[in-house]
Amino acid sequence: MKVFNTLTGRLEEFEPINNRKVGIYACGVTVYDLCHIGHARSAVVFDVIVRYLRYLGYDVKFVRNFTDIDDKIINRANKEGVSWKEIAEKYTEEYYKDMDRLGIARADIEPKATEHIKEMIEIIQKLIEKGYAYQVDEGDAKSVYFSVERFPSYGKLSKKKIDELMSGARVEVDERKKSPLDFALWKASKPGEPWWDSPWGKGRPGWHIECSAMSIKYLGETLDIHGGGVDLIFPHHENEIAQSEAFTGKTFAKYWIHNGFVTMNKEKMSKSLGNVLNIRDLLEIYDAEALRLFLLSSHYRSPIEFAHEYVKEAEATLDRVYSTMMRIEDLIASDSPKDENNQDFKRIQSEFENLKSEFEKAMDEDFNTARAVAVIFEFIKELNRFMDKKPSGKEEVNLLFNSKKIIRELGSVLNLFQREPIQWYRDLLKIKKIEITEDEINRLIEERTQARKNKDWQRADSIREELFSKGIILEDKPGKTIWKVKI
User: Fold this and answer.
1) Where is the domain boundary, 420, 452, 473?
2) Where does ATP bind (predicted)?
3) What local confidence, expressed as pLDDT, does residue 393 receive?
4) What is the pTM of this model?
5) Which of 95, 160, 205, 283 allows an S-S link to 155, with CB 3.0 to 4.6 Å?
6) Integer distance in angstroms from the first to the last C-alpha of the chain?
7) Last residue of a domain, one of 385, 420, 455
8) Would you say 182 and 147 are in contact if contact means Cβ atoms under 8 Å apart?
C-alpha cells in the first residue's frame, strides 16, 4: 500500500513503525461554532483511512482532539455573554450530532486541550531548559515563545525557508519576540480571560503546543500518521514538528497526510468570503449518505468543488445502488431457482471475483476512494445488465445473493450502502419533505391493487398519478407493487 507523504512530497510504501500497529493523530475542530462542509471532508477522509487500515487487519489507535480553549471560543463567549466552557461544551455536542449523521465513527481517544495543561507545561519547561524557548515579561506573568531560528529544519513540511519567511511582509511585527517567526507556547493571561497556574504565572497554552502534548501522550514520541486539512500544514503542523522534535529529539511523525479544500466557484470556503456551508444546513436538504458519497467521489488530496448539482448526482447514484439491491432481493424471492444457465453468467462471475481485488488496488493507491467507488459502480452497472436477462439458475441466484453481500462489505470500508433499500426510501420521504406517510402510500397501493383486480383501470391509473405528483414512483412486480421516492 502506498500513501502520499506531505513531508517528502511523494508516494511511499506504507510501513508502520511497529509492524501491524498504527498510531494516527488527526487535528480536530475548535469548538466555537457549527461545523462546515470543510470540517466534514477532513472527518470523512480520516474516518475512511482508519476503516480501511482496520479492514486490512491493522491494529489502529486513532486520536482526534478538541481544541476547547482558543481566542475564537473566548470571543464567542464574550459576544454571547456566557462562559467559554459553555461555548466549548455546546459546540462539542453539536459536532457529535453532525458527525453521527455523517457516519463518522468516534475516535479511540478524543482528548480535550484543557484536560492536558500539565503535559503542555512539562514540554514547555523542557524546551526552555534545552534553549529552544524563551520567556517574555507581561507584567504579573510571562509568555513563552518558541525560537524558530534554534530549529534549523523549520519549514521542512511546508517547504518554506526561514530567511524567505523572515522577509515576508505578512509576518506581523511583535516587539516582545526575538524573531517575527517565533510562536507562542504559553500566553500570559489578559483580564477577563481563562487562565491556569504555571511556572510563568497565570496564563493559557498556545494552539500548537496542545496537539503536540496530546499526540505524544497517547501515541508516543513518533506517530505513524499525523494529518488534517491542507490549511494546517503551515503554520500549525510546521510548528508542531519544531516543538515536538526539539522536545524529544526524535522524528515526530513518519507520514503526514493532508486533505484538500472544499471550494465554491473555485474559491476556498471561508467566513470572510461568506461562502461557508454548515453541515447542519446541508443535512436539511440532502441525505447524509449522499453528502458522504459526494465527499468521497474525489481523491482526498484534490480540492473538491461544492455545487448542489454534484450532491444531487451523488443522491441519484445512491438511489441506483439501493434500487439494485431491491432488484436483487426481488429476483431471489421471485421463483424457486432452476438449473438454467445464463450466457452472461461467466462474465458477471468473473467481474464478481475481481471486484474485491480491484477495490483494494484502488484503496492501496493512497486511499483512492474516487476509484474505489467507481469500481463498485461499474460492477453494479454490469449486475443490472445481467439481471435484465432475468437469471434464474441456482448458481446465478447464489451469485446475486453474494453480490449484494460484497457490495455491503466493501461499502462498509467507506461506510456507504449499509441501509436496507426500504430504509433508504423511508429516509428520503423525510429529507424530501414529501407530504405523505408510508402507511398512506401502502393504503393507496392496496386500493390500486384491488382496482386492478376489478379491472378499474381508471382508478388504478389515477392512484399512480396521484402518488407520482407527490414524488412517489410505483413499480409493478410479479405479485406485488413497490414504491420508491423520485430523485
Assistant:
1) 420
2) 271
3) 83
4) 0.95
5) 160
6) 38
7) 420
8) yes
Q: What grid cell was written down for 124?
A: 514547555
Regarding whether 117 and 26 lie in a shared domain, the answer is yes
Q: Is residue 393 domain-shared with residue 441, that is, in the same domain? A: no
Cα 250–chain centre separation: 30
**Residues of the chain where predicted confidence (pLDDT) is lower than 70:** 168-173, 335-343
Q: Which of 328, 307, 357, 111 is nearest to 215 (CA)?
A: 111
**3-state secondary structure at position 477:** strand
Whether the CB-CB separation of 285 and 314 falls below 8 Å is answered with: no
Asked whether 366 and 301 are in contact (CB, 8 A), the reply is yes
- Report the distance separating Cα 424 and Cα 408, nearest Å: 14
Q: Is 211 annotated as a binding residue?
A: yes
User: How far is CA 185 from its chain centroid?
Assistant: 29
Residue 35, marked binder: no
According to DSSP, the residues that pair with 204 across neighbouring strands are: 187
pLDDT of residue 168: 64
Question: Using one digit for the tens of pLDDT, what is the confidence trace for 118-131?
Answer: 999 999 999 999 99
Geometric angle at alpha carbon 350, from 345 and 354, rounded to 5°: 150
Contacts of 347 (CB under 8 A, 6+ apart): 382, 386
pLDDT of residue 169: 36
- Per the structure, the complete domain to which residue 279 belongs is given by 2-284
Burial of 99 (0-12, 13-18, 19+ CB in 10 A): buried
Same domain, residue pair 370 and 481: no
Give residue 87's pLDDT.
98
The rounded distance, in Å, linking the Cα atoms of 283 and 273 is 22
Please tell me whether 130 is known to bind a ligand. Answer: no
Burial pattern 396-407, b for ≥16 Cβ within 10 A else e, equals bbebbeebbeeb
In the chain, how many domains are there?
3
Identify the pLDDT of residue 389. 87
Tell whether 69 is covered by a domain: yes
147 and 13 in one domain? Answer: yes
Nearest Cα to Cα of residue 51 among 424, 320, 372: 372
The size of the chain, in residues, is 487
